[in-house]
Specification:
131 residues; mainly alpha; 6 helices; 81% helix; 0% strand
Length: 131
């Protein structure tokens, strides 16, 4: 994954220089980059890419606030924050990661509750991260 990360980071830099900030190609580059960081257990960069994608989608106003995939992105970011917290030996960083993870889990839960319903498995997954 290391070579993929380098190639995707370079493609993202090139894309940012050539495309409008809300161009969907940037999302198409950032999502596999985020997944590559997850595979390498680089949770800080996975969260950074997740925020990047969410920022593009929300600022472009192409998708509604309660778009189901947006709920999935917040859920993924919450999971990565929780994993990042588990991976650090520092209690202060662990607390910070977990708190951030709960914020994103709350957003995921709120979106999924509207789009999928209170009892849907995805909504219940997000609720579980809030505990």
């Amino acid at each position: 994954f290391v070579r993929a990360i380098v190639a995707l980071e370079n493609a993202l830099k090139l894309g940012e220089a050539q495309f409008h900030a809300c161009n969907p190609q940037l999302v198409n580059i950032a999502l596999p980059l985020m997944s590559s960081y997850e595979c390498e257990r680089d949770y800080a960069n996975a969260v950074r890419m997740n925020k990047y994608v969410i920022n593009i989608l929300t600022t472009s106003q192409v998708v509604p606030n309660n778009w189901p995939e947006l709920g999935d992105l917040y859920f993924n970011m919450s999971e990565n924050c929780m994993k990042g917290g588990d991976a650090t030996p520092s209690q202060a960083l662990k607390k910070k990661w977990k708190a951030e993870g709960k914020v994103h889990a709350r957003k995921s839960f709120d979106i999924r509750r509207v789009t999928s319903g209170e009892e849907h498995v995805k909504t219940l997954q997000a609720a579980k991260l809030l505990k």
